[in-house]
Amino acid sequence: MERGKVTMDRNADAPWSKFDPEVYVDDNYRTPLEVDLLIVRLMRDYFTRCFDGAAPRSVRGVDVGAGANLYPALSMLPWCEKLLLLEFAPPNVEYLEKQVSPAGYDIAWDPFWDVLREAPAYGAVDRPRDRIGEVTRVEQGSLFDLGGGTRRWDLGTMFFVADSMSEAPEEFHRGVRCFMGALAGGAPFAAAFMKESVGYRVGDHDYPAYRVNEATVAQSLEPFTGELEIHDLHHSVRPGHEGMLLALGRRNTEVAAP
Ligand SMILES: C[S@@+](CC[C@H](N)C(=O)[O-])C[C@H]1O[C@@H](n2cnc3c(N)ncnc32)[C@H](O)[C@@H]1O
User: Fold this and answer.
1) Which positions, given as ranges, span the membrane (predicted)?
2) CA contacts within 13 A on the Cβ side of 255
């Protein structure tokens, strides 16, 4: 009799200390995919609408589980007086520190900035490499420790994290709650998820995922949102998932979380 898998890979079980950011960038971002450029455009236009008329550099932003991806941070740049990149895996923390150092970020991120700067608020940022270095702090820590904390941000992103760090449904939902709980009432946010992902490989290591679809994502976010749109992007970047979901919205003020 064939036995099914009985254990579930939880967040604490995955080899985060072995995560290779350069391989991850090679696999996902070094050659920009249409779907990521589309996500960047949607996020740019959404944040521009949310901050219409707001003073530049007036809010505190956070990218949770930033990993080796700078485009969520760049998407928040015009409005942030402070920007925190929270990341758990030490090699990714090191990668991010290098990206925001005076040496400036890798040219791999230029095509994403080129899309962003088509909008006036972004175009008004003269030197994005200097600006991101001035406003950004990288912190090693877990998303789960944001829950119940007192820190709140006015703008936030979380890309491929709650669904891409554990197979456990409880950890997916807790991850979303912790992210939403870290946002102040009214805060705009963008969150992206791999649709129906069965896990992913980076270099020689396998990482877990919880399979989500549009309904799962909507159900997890709705209690915390006053405004929510979910874009189902039917682009598959590798075998083992069915596309990407981009949620754009604002944190409501009614519900205390988590
Ligand atoms: C699939 S990667 C996504 C990285 C990046 N945000 C992106 O858009 O490509 C998942 C990320 O979640 C991070 N991660 C895993 N567990 C975490 C936790 N408990 N708290 C915060 N980040 C975590 C990993 O280190 C990794 O950077």
Assistant:
1) none
2) 16
